[in-house]
Design brief:
Oligomer: single chain
Largest sheet: 7 strands, mixed
Distance between the termini: 34 Å
Number of helices: 16
CATH topology of the largest domain: BirA Bifunctional Protein, domain 2
Mean pLDDT: 93
Low-confidence stretches: none
Number of domains: 3
Number of strands: 23
Helix content: 25-40%
Radius of gyration: 26 Å
CATH superfamily of the largest domain: Bira Bifunctional Protein, Domain 2
CATH architecture of the largest domain: 2-Layer Sandwich
Shape: globular
């Protein structure tokens, strides 16, 4: 499976999906740039999420909050005191790992070998460690008792487990001082919470309602590897849903189902998804679950659904001395709403879609690499080719290209053989290739080739847009 992951990473570079950031200077660890194809794919995923969340519900509003926020926000949210990862160093390989993920990986390997009883014993010790008063000491004990070895070195020579705060700190203004220290936001959710009252007052919404946001977040990940799965600069797609206390579990189950179905609607095979219930929810949650995807590097989280109680609004109310309550006119009561959160990593979702779409087949007598994206998410919706560069075909193809690109991202290509052009489009996931040939010039429509079935049909110019909509859904 690791070989497949390496092939996907190579394809992303070769076809302009994802590049190492600052590559000409040797790169910057765990930071990546999206190339022409990656930028289109990422934008399509972002737009699909926004349409589903904001346009698909009459009680969800959008927001775009600032990356830089008052430092008191992060004190109130608990990030200053509690936003830590338990990390451990392999003395042989000099690599650093999250201790909790190290143990979880060991449990998964035991299960894969059919050692379920042993896996259950380690799991019980792990759960006890998560709930202990000294997390670092307890996790270290689990690692040592089960002789969990370094994934890269195979050695059993560890340091103690230590906690590291993951927030990036910077200075506001021209002169750095202790008073000017602020943080790059480690999550987008707090921008929603501090704007709760503003949205409530200006949007004429009432409980229950949600606030959705897509934006950058920053975490000083000490353990940052596995391509774009874990980065220091990333984007989140989050929605905070505000409900009356006591109704949060109903909303929690509702959004679990909605989010699972959204991923499947984007072309993810259900067998490649699973639920992962948190052994120890965060301090602010009374329920938490992750949607995990079976990446070539193993099962990993792509989205979390959390019942956050009233922790966030209550904390900000206390620290800001501003009322963050609603008044229920029917019940004649005032309360701080509870919150159900859906939080998906945009970059992780992009990686999941690439991994799911990646395929190699031998149809048509030749091998090819193809990305089978859902058409509505594909970076290029259709490609237009002249069969040859003469007899008026390039001009006719160019005219069709100009018509279609007014509505979609469309490619035009007249270089190389028609077979090579097909292969180039297959590798970036283009659903349809439209070829202008001699029959087109005689008034019999263009040849349209389907990426997945390789079926070719003739479609009249006047029907081409309708045909693309029928295939791609928009």
């Amino acid at each position: 499976m690791r070989k497949k992951f390496d092939q996907i990473v190579a394809l992303c570079k070769r076809r302009g999906f994802i590049f190492q950031s600052s590559e000409i200077y040797g790169g910057l660890g765990a930071t990546y740039d999206y190339g022409p194809m990656g930028a289109e794919l990422k934008r399509n995923v972002r737009d699909a999420w926004w349409r589903h969340m904001v346009y698909g519900h009459d009680n969800i509003e959008g927001l775009d909050s600032a990356i830089l926020m008052h430092p008191a926000v992060w004190k109130a949210s608990g990030h200053v005191d509690a936003f830590h990862d338990p990390l451990i160093d392999d003395k042989v390989s000099k690599r650093r790992y999250r201790a909790d993920l190290l143990i979880e990986g060991h449990i998964e390997r035991l299960k894969a070998k059919g050692k379920d009883d042993q896996a259950n014993q380690v799991h019980a010790s792990y759960v006890a460690a998560l709930n202990s008063d000294d997390l670092c000491k307890a996790l270290h004990a689990v690692i040592m008792e089960n002789e969990i070895r370094g994934p890269d070195s195979g050695a059993f020579d560890w340091t103690k487990v230590r906690q590291f705060n993951m927030m990036f700190e910077t200075s506001l203004g021209a002169v750095a001082s202790e008073d000017s220290s602020i943080y790059l936001r480690p999550e987008t959710a707090q921008g929603i919470f501090v704007n709760f009252q503003n949205v409530l007052n200006t949007s004429r919404v009432k409980i229950p309602f949600g606030i959705a946001q897509v934006g950058k977040a920053f975490r000083n990940e000490i353990v940052a590897r596995q391509f774009i799965f874990r980065m220091r600069e990333f984007e989140q797609m989050e929605m905070q849903y505000f409900v009356r206390p006591g109704t949060q579990m109903e909303a929690y189950e509702h959004w679990r189902e909605r989010r699972w179905n959204w991923h499947m609607a984007n072309g993810i095979n259900e067998s490649h998804l699973r639920w992962h219930v948190h052994e120890k929810p965060a301090h602010y949650a009374d329920a938490a679950v992750d949607i995990q995807y079976k990446f070539p590097i193993g099962w990993q989280e792509v989205e979390g659904i959390h019942s956050r109680t009233d922790y966030d609004l209550s904390r900000h109310q206390a620290y800001s001395s501003r009322k963050l309550q609603v008044f229920d006119t029917q019940r004649r009561e005032r309360y701080v709403p509870f919150v159900v959160e859906t939080s998906a990593g945009l970059d992780r979702t992009v990686l999941m879609l690439i991994c799911e779409a990646y395929d190699q087949d031998h149809r048509g007598g030749a091998s090819r690499t193809v990305l089978r994206f859902a058409p509505v998410l594909a970076p290029i919706r259709a490609a237009v080719f002249p069969l040859v560069r003469r007899d008026g075909m390039p001009e006719r193809a160019r005219a069709m290209y100009e018509t279609l690109r007014a509505r979609w991202r469309v490619a035009y290509d007249e270089r190389g053989s028609i077979g090579k052009r097909y292969r180039r489009m297959d590798e970036v996931g283009t659903p349809l290739c439209i070829t202008i040939d001699s029959e087109t010039m005689d008034g019999h429509g263009a040849t349209v080739r389907n990426r997945d079935t390789l079926e070719q049909v003739r479609v009249d110019d006047s029907q081409m847009e309708a045909y693309i909509v029928a295939v791609s859904g928009s």
